[in-house]
UniProtKB/TrEMBL annotation:
The keyword Membrane applies. It comes from Bacillus spongiae. Its main location: membrane. Part of the ABC transporter FtsEX involved in cellular division. Coiled coil: none annotated. Belongs to the ABC transporter superfamily. InterPro entries: AAA+_ATPase (IPR003593), ABC_transporter-like_ATP-bd (IPR003439), ABC_transporter-like_CS (IPR017871), ABC_transpr_LolD-like (IPR015854), Cell_div_FtsE (IPR005286), P-loop_NTPase (IPR027417). It is found in: Cell membrane. This is Cell division ATP-binding protein FtsE. GO terms for molecular function: ATP binding. Homodimer. Forms a membrane-associated complex with FtsX.
């Protein structure tokens, strides 16, 4: 599903955030991306959803080489993926329902089908009863659930999460992980950058560790491997 070949990314300030990355990721995998702060984790996942372009090398997502993709084609690439951020990135003036439905509007989904799909994913994340509320009426954990619902409402093949539990308390973090596990069991590939040692060591999946822009460890059912 994802293939990076000899990928380099150097920013204008001279920082090399990807330094010869080679990796393959199959459909349906659940992968943790770990490593010290500033190691290149965020760049690694931003290359996947074309927030960043490599300086050199190939990043192929579902057969599309994003390194060569024209900017106006990027929205079409992202229709098959969902992205979840640490700071939620919800639209404050829209209700929970409207925030999730917003991701479907560009697909010209029929209204009846759109409403059913939105309510189904809100039910999955346990927020069907709060569909009419605004983001600032929700807790941080609830806002993150809305963010997840928005990322999966178009049934993507791939969900990319950048520190999705970073701003949440431990109990809420486990609840969020249950949702990611459910998404994954339904066949969606999940790639999650995280500093949460307990989650990585308890819910075992493939672990890709990055240091200084390089993959230094790639293990099936790996552990976190870093001291806090």
């Amino acid at each position: 599903m994802i293939q990076m070949t000899n990928v380099y990314k150097e920013y204008s300030n001279g920082i090399v955030a990807a330094n010869g990355i080679d990796v393959q990721i199959q459909q349906g995998e659940f992968i943790y991306v770990v490593g010290p702060s500033g190691a290149g984790k965020s760049t690694f996942i931003k290359l996947m959803y074309r927030e960043e372009k490599p300086t050199s090398g190939d990043v192929i997502i579902n057969g599309i080489n994003t390194a060569k993709l024209k900017s106006h084609r990027v929205p079409y690439l992202r229709r098959n993926m969902g992205v979840v951020f640490q700071d939620f990135k919800l639209l404050p003036s829209l209700t929970v329902y409207e925030n999730v439905a917003f991701a479907l509007e560009v697909t010209e989904e029929p209204t009846v089908m759109m409403k059913k799909r939105v309510m189904d994913v809100l039910d999955l994340v346990g927020l069907k009863h709060k569909a009419r509320m605004l983001p600032d009426e929700l807790s941080g954990g609830e806002q993150q659930r809305v963010s997840i619902a928005r990322s999966i409402v178009n049934t993507p093949k791939l969900v990319i999460a950048d520190e999705p539990t970073g701003n949440l308390d431990p109990e809420t973090s486990w609840e969020i992980m249950k949702i990611f596990e459910e998404i994954n069991t339904r066949g969606t590939t999940v790639i999650m950058a995280t500093h949460n040692r307990d989650i990585v060591n308890t819910i075992r999946h493939r672990v890709i560790a990055i240091e200084n822009g390089k993959i230094v460890r790639d293990e099936q059912r790996g552990d976190y491997g870093y001291e806090l």
